[in-house]
Amino acid sequence: MIKKLGFMLIIVLVVSSFTACGSDYIMGNKDVKDLIENIGLKKEEVFNNLKLEEGKDIEEFDGKAGIYAFKEERTVYGQSLKLALTFDINNDKMYGFMYIKGFKDQKKDAYDLTQKLQKDLNKAYGEPATYPELTNTISKMPNYEDLPEKESADFLETWKADDGLDVELRMTIQEGQNASVTLTYKINTLPEDWNK
Fold first, then answer.
1. Per the structure, how many domains does the chain have?
2. What is the torsion angle, in degrees rounded to the nearest 10, for the CA atoms of residue 113, residue 114, residue 120 and residue 123?
């Protein structure tokens, strides 16, 4: 009886440790979990839940309606990036959030960050759900040395996450050495009552 009880206790501890590690890794950090819990709520409620004061902690991002960026960078998968919340401009409900980093004259740094995030996201969510016919996916992205020098390019990859979310990683190269990397979490299907 004691042997069975000891064996069961060991199994419970092992399973719970795998579960805890997996969920922490999948979420990337506490911000992601907190933000996912606020999807579908109106801006005022989201700001209250996250203890944000507009103008002090968060502000409209580059004059774009419905996008509010934190003034301080946040960390996701060990990387320091700008975090922005995205709201539906028709009903003020949060439908997602994104981490953004711009690179001026540092296309190599953008490439390296994209590769690292892709590996982290593959570990967290498994194989990408990007349409296989697309030629501009991150998994098909050429080596850094073979990227276009004088023209723009856009590479992306998507994953299906829990809670009805899609995760999208995008690297955009402007002409020359400027680039940006965006990691977006957004709902993939609007609930029937979304516009109420």
1. 1
2. -160
DSSP H helical ranges for 28-133? 30-38, 43-49, 107-125
Return averaged pLDDT per consecutive 10 residues of the chain, 196 residues in all: 37 32 45 88 95 93 92 89 94 95 89 94 92 89 84 91 87 85 90 70
> Alpha-carbon distance 60 to 54, whole Å?
8
For residue 141, the 8-state DSSP code is P
- Is the residue at 155 inside a domain? yes
The reported pLDDT for the residue numbered 47 is 96
User: Would 24 be classed as within a structural domain?
Assistant: no
Is 164 a domain residue? yes
| Cβ atoms 15, 8 nearer than 8 A | no
57 lies in some domain: yes
Question: Does residue 129 contact residue 158 with C-beta atoms inside 8 Å?
Answer: yes
pTM: 0.80
Whole domain around residue 168: which residue ranges? 29-187
For the purposes of burial, counting CB atoms within 10 Å of the CB of 171, is it exposed (0-12), middle (13-18) or buried (19 or more)? buried
CA distance 167 to 161: 7
